[in-house]
Amino acid sequence: MAELVFFSGTMDCGKSTLALQMDYNHSARGRGGILFSRNDRAGESVISSRLGLRTRAVEVRDTTDFWEEAVRRRSAGDRVDYLICDEAQFYSEEQVEQLARIVDELGIDVFAFGIATDFRTKLFPGSQRLIELADRIEVLQVRALCWCGRRATHNARTVNGVMVVTGDQVVVGDVEKRSPEPDPEALFAPEEAGAAPVVGYETLCRRHYMRRMGAQQAARFKELGEDPGVCAVDTPHP
Ligand SMILES: Nc1ncnc2c1ncn2[C@@H]1O[C@H](COP(=O)(O)OP(=O)(O)O)[C@@H](O)[C@H]1O
Ligand SMILES: Cc1cn([C@H]2C[C@H](O)[C@@H](COP(=O)(O)O)O2)c(=O)[nH]c1=O
């Protein structure tokens, strides 16, 4: 029985790696698949993993109709047993509904991969529809970690290394392994800092997400001899 499965987790937890591994395993057994992605960090029409793997994929656009694409490929004689759908958080609700129809009416497995929530902790529309419609939601076993060592559950956005909670929902970017030096003026008022913005992401545990305590802020607190686990300033969650 074909399934719609949503593999979800924070940024940098291995979703694209798993997507490419699943494609490899299924195609090695003679199954035919189509790979899709949208806004991959490495550019258009590709699924890329931080482990170095990358494979060509069909770029999903606002106009993409998954149903039409699957039917067209099958009518052309291609074997289509499964779809790999990376960065599925960026798909529209309508596109996710097309994926569900493909499972139910064409018997094609759909394996979707994506982050559930954005930098404000709000569900992406595509992810919300996947959670509503999927046969199964799989949480990845490899956990990204917060700077404090706890399991990371939230995706924070940083501007010049400082966590922000306002801005556009979609800004393609990567997790920062080594952040730029923070502007001390910007630490508690990043939106007013005015410098040319360098946007990055950081995975945090809920405690540190809610306290807006990214790695740089924590380092600064430690420098000042304060405990970053207990936020000294009142930074209410929006
Ligand atoms: N140099 C490395 N050595 C070992 N594992 C790595 C290396 N770089 C990245 N990884 C692994 O790859 C994971 C990120 O995989 P990726 O598929 O790009 O994540 P996602 O698609 O979820 O953002 C990291 O959590 C880490 O486990
Ligand atoms: C939290 C968040 C992320 N994004 C972007 C940043 C990346 O380009 C992708 C996630 O990719 P990954 O393979 O899971 O690392 O999503 C965004 O646009 N908005 C956000 O709030």
UniProtKB/TrEMBL annotation:
Pfam families: TK (PF00265). Keywords: ATP-binding, DNA synthesis, Kinase, Nucleotide-binding, Transferase. InterPro entries: P-loop_NTPase, Thymidine_kinase. GO terms for molecular function: thymidine kinase activity. Its EC number is 2.7.1.21. It catalyses: thymidine + ATP = dTMP + ADP + H(+). The keyword Transferase applies. It is an enzyme of class 2 (transferase). Belongs to the thymidine kinase family. This is Thymidine kinase.
